[in-house]
Amino acid sequence: MTAQLDVLTVGYVGDRVAGTVVLVRDGDLVAVVDPGMVASRSRILDPLAHLGIAAEEVTDVVFSHHHPDHTLNAALFANARFHDFQAVYHDDLWVDREFTDDVSQLSPSVRLLLTPGHTAQDVSTLVDTGDGVVVCTHLWWSADGPADDPFAPDRELLRASRNKVLGLRPALIVPGHGEPFTPTTSTPM
Question: What's the whole-model pTM score?
């Protein structure tokens, strides 16, 4: 079984900041990853509508971490369950997340992986697609890194999590603020 992944909007950093926002579909799971800051909410909602999905049909939202540039537009998805490194949240329910070997399953082809680095509470979303594993993560801001993340509290922890992700041999990495890229030997560590 494989999931389908669509990039709704590509993020950037500079004078302005926007996060890369992704849609993942796997059976009954319709998940948006990192619905954060964008120039306009239409940068999230229009691509969803083009794919035939209304905001109220989104079942799950995943936060790679809790910075506003990755969470600000979560309220667009009023019916969704919300996922982070710690729990699943829905309405007034808080259910602690269980990890086995740093992995928590969301659906048959989608799982969360503990990957502290950019923050101590980071998770990466692993999506099994027809082209291989795609990793949505903020371990890289873009294909160029930065090698030394200015927010990372522990450079060695960042490097260890990057190694963990690269060890999965992903077909594609979807970074926090840039175009998806295929990792190579020059991918910043």
Answer: 0.97
